[in-house]
Structures are given as C-alpha cells and as structure tokens.
Amino acid sequence: MHRRTIHGLALVTLFAISGEMARADEQVVIVARYYPAPGREADLEARLLRSLKYVKQAEPNVSYRLHRSAKEPTVFLFYEVYPSQAARDQHLTETLAALRKEAGPMPEGFLSRPPEVEAYGFLAE
C-alpha cells in the first residue's frame, strides 16, 4: 500500500473515532486540574468546595467530584461526568455563569498556573 493511502485511511479512521466521541447523546467526561499558589492551598480548597456544592445543587444529574492528589497534595482535580454534550454546554453557559456571578471571579494570586481542563469521550466499557 502506498504511504498516502495509509495516511488517508488513518485520517478517515481518526475522524470516525472523534465523531463517535463527540456524539451529543453520550456522556462527556471532564478532568480539570487546579494548581494553587504557594500558601493559598486552603483558600483554593475552600473555594473549590463551595463550587462543588453549588454545582451539585444546580445540576443534580451531573457527577461532579473534587479530589486532591496523593502524590502532589497541592494539586486539586475535578472529575466531571455529564450525561450529554447538551448538559456540558448548559454547565458552561448557565451554571458557571451563575456561579461566577454569586462567588465572583477567581481572586488574583490564587493559582500558580492556569487550570488544565481536558475532555474525554467514551471509548469502551
């Protein structure tokens, strides 16, 4: 097989897989890591716990969990499971907007670097 054909087949497969991962009726998993500035760990933890409580009340059908790294105790991680892309979109446009209005923006100096947010699509069970 020619190299171009192999690359073409690989691209078609990749697009097919990513299309499946982005289906609107499937769960969407988000992992978000937060890195507090030195000395601000307790402040960030308290803020994230308030955010967790708010989201759980606003979106009872969403799995929204807060973790702290066992390896690096200053790293916090949200693990979020949305029943669909529409639920994730609602979280971003409505719930987070309302939360920011109530809690205010993240205070300056809370984070040592920007949060890392990554989405995962369902692959297999």
If you had to describe this structure to a student in words, what would you say it looks like?
By secondary structure, the chain is of the alpha+beta class. The chain has one domain: 2-Layer Sandwich (Alpha-Beta Plaits). A four-stranded antiparallel sheet has the order 2-3-1-4. Strand 2 and strand 3 form a beta hairpin. It starts with a helix and ends with a strand. 9% of the residues are buried. The N terminus is likely disordered.
Q: Which characteristics define this entry?
A:
alpha+beta, Alpha-Beta Plaits, 4-stranded antiparallel beta sheet, 26% strand, globular, disordered N terminus
Q: Quick recap of the structure?
A:
With 125 residues, this protein is α+β, with helices and mostly antiparallel strands.
**Major beta sheet, specifics?**
4 strands, antiparallel
| Main sheet: strand order | 2-3-1-4
Q: Give the integer mean of the pLDDT values.
A: 85
Helix content: 40-55%
Extended strand count:
4
Q: Could you tell me the strand content as a percent range? A: 25-35%
**Class of secondary structure makeup:** alpha+beta
Q: What is the CATH class name?
A: Alpha Beta
Please work out how many helical segments DSSP would assign: 3
Number of domains: 1
Report the radius of gyration as a whole number of Å. 18 Å
Question: Order of helices and strands, N to C?
Answer: HEHEEHE
User: Termini separation (Å)?
Assistant: 33 Å
- Low confidence ranges: 1-21
Q: Name the CATH architecture.
A: 2-Layer Sandwich
Shape: globular
CATH topology: Alpha-Beta Plaits
